[in-house]
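Reviewers of the previous submission asked for a worked example of the structure-prediction workflow described in the proposal, so we include one complete record here. The input consisted solely of the amino acid sequence. No template or homolog information was supplied to the procedure at any stage.
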Amino acid sequence: MTYSPEAFRASLTGISGILVTPFGPDGQLAPARLAPVVERAVAAGVHILTANGNTGEFYGLTTDEAVRAVRFMAEQINGRAPLLAGIGRSINDALELTKASRAAGAAGLMVHQPPDPFVAPRGVVEYVKRVAEAGQGLPVVIYLRNDAIGLDAIEALCAIPEVVGVKWATPAPLKLAEAIRRADPSIVWVGGLAEIWAPAFYAVGARGFTSGLINVWPEQSMAIHAALEAGDYVAARARIAIMESFESLRAEEGNGTNVSVVKAALALLGNECGAVRPPGAWPLTPRQQATLEASLLAWGLTK
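From that input alone, the workflow returned the following structure tokens.
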């Protein structure tokens, strides 16, 4: 299914669900294991699904694996929701992945902020311009995890014609408000720090949020989104409080358990998606595992 620019922008104001990348017992890609996750997310109405995001262990994949991942995720989603394809690494890897994502039918491209130790703000702008050119008209979303590149660079990124959105993943809502003020009004600013930070980002003008929880409990994410869209911050915070222990676990060990908690939860649900590759933490510690098991039981997801 082809999504119009207007439909794609609208999907960004919803939940951007970040899919895990499934591995088998041998540690290799195991596409069939993801199918139940996709089906749950689609049935719950998650607005947009992302391949090769951070919850998908993007930096733990080879470029060839990332290409294969976007292909099988596109096949499983089968047009039932827009697919946003994560793009990153060296510029040549990024261009290869951009072409493969376009061929797979991705509705848009999410450009990871380059983690290179020698990143120039103008170099990031050039990087995104080259990805956008290779995308041949596909809409581009900037995934901003470090606002130290400065507001001038962020404004320049938003001025690239193909850029339609920014996933703001830095805990600085006041700087987000200024970035929104300086950008074209058509840019969609998405809360990139999941459910916990969504109310603060909504309060300064963001719409929608990213979510790894959708792999496990998409209905809860949808309820939080509905409350925020209705302006009911009390209901949204109450819903967030229920799943706060899950997100707190994901933030442990310098965020090294972020994907680990999601995959351990999927295993408890009978939807094994394999281990987390180093340098992520695996397995969970006994305390972490017990806390996770108690959360899933309290949520009524396990017995």
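The first strand starts at residue 15 and ends at 18. We consider this example representative of the routine output the project will generate in years two and three.
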